[in-house]
Amino acid sequence: xxxxxxxxxxxxxxxxxxxxxxxxxxxxxxxxxxxxxxxxxxxxxxxxxxxxxxxxxxxxxxxxxxxxxxxxxxxxxxxxxxxxxxxxxxxxxxxxxxxxxxxxxxxxxxxxxxxxxxxxxxxxxxxxxxxxxxxxxxxxxxxxxxxxxxxxxxxxxxxxxxxxxxxxxxxxxxxxxxxxxxxxxxxxxxxxxxxxxxxxxxxxxxxxxxxxxxxxxxxxxxxxxxxxxxxxxxxxxxxxxxxxxxxxxxxxxxxxxxxxxxxxxxxxxxxxxxxxxxxxxxxxxxxxxxxxxxxxxxxxxxxxxxxxxxxxxxxxxxxxxxxxxxxxxxxxxxxxxxxxxxxxxxxxxxxxxxxxxxxxxxxxxxxxxxxxxxxxxxxxxxxxxxxxxxxxxxxxxxxxxxxxxxxxxxxxxxxxxxxxxxxxxxxxxxxxxxxxxxxxxxxxxxxxxxxx
Length: 452
Description:
Elements: E1 4-8, H1 12-23, E2 27-31, E3 55-58, H2 65-75, H3 79-86, E4 88-89, E5 94-97, H4 99-112, E6 116-119, E7 131-134, H5 142-152, E8 157-163, E9 166-168, E10 178-179, H6 189-192, E11 195-200, H7 202-214, H8 241-246, E12 274-280, E13 287-290, H9 299-306, E14 317-319, E15 322-328, H10 331-334, E16 340-341, E17 344-349, H11 359-377, H12 390-401, H13 429-450
Parallel strand pairs: 1-2, 1-7, 2-6, 7-17
Antiparallel strand pairs: 3-5, 4-5, 8-15, 9-13, 9-14, 10-11, 11-12, 12-13, 16-17
């Protein structure tokens, strides 16, 4: 048992950690409680199931921190990014995937690996011996969460995360909506027309906003209620649309409903006041998710409010939005530089439970945890990537770089990187971002090479 790596959770982080460790020659057991013990957000028992969006966000590895993280994962032989590439959907400059075939493929590849096995038992405590990675994600089961709190002596932090609705494509009125990626981004015509756009004039926008603000919202699931409802700790990167609307009447118009970079194909002379975008959610093109429209509205209210959007008056929904508790630990206080729990160094943490946000970031932390755990089992060490790489910046942030008192989930961004000497101010930011990625690629390539 001491030579086997046990991973609790088969999401993005757990799947990636298992792949990396197995490819280094270490036997791995993935403990995934689904489908025997389900959650309200998951639909299947597949590994790496995508619960919220189907997007891995920007794939621009030259001027975007997320795209750079994609690049680094490809260099490190990442399972998640390689499978995403194989199930890619047109999404402009973003990497979006057909979510069900993606999860099925990740599951099949892991089950086919001779050093990987999967068990359906639920782990409810933190083992005192053996090599373990906890990668249970935002929906960590209550018994395991309680065990983590008992082991750390600290309360797990929590915020509330939301899911966006998915629309049947055939129910969208294309005499009103049109296909276009923002700023016509993409190398092919399919990518340049990857999004469906629904325009609103000022009157329709104001009416939509009034209905949204008046809509009844759903109660939290059992055990998820905030002790201070007026101070619910939402994650700013995934706010419900009604919460954004409460912050000001133009917040949505400068956020997920911004009209910039788009020209109405039906009325090119008229600039939309606001635009709702839909992104393809499966390879068949039969499903589209409403971009940035995470919501906690009750189901009846959702359909009424969303059908006020031009082009969606007759929309039918394959899935309506929802809200769930998202739990994470105070990693800067609890984890060492090798992602081990200081109080129990036989246990590592990876993925969203460490306080990174997003599929890509979660998988990247799984990649590092898997490699570090395998190296330890094999009797050698692996240092974390340099902090001027995307992975290095993230792991540095969660293991000590962040302020523990104000720690909350973080997406990868250039603000986490050591500063670079590049002139030009705001106008020169594209060159500055390119300098960040050039420096990171050189450092990451060397880090990978040093591991043989």
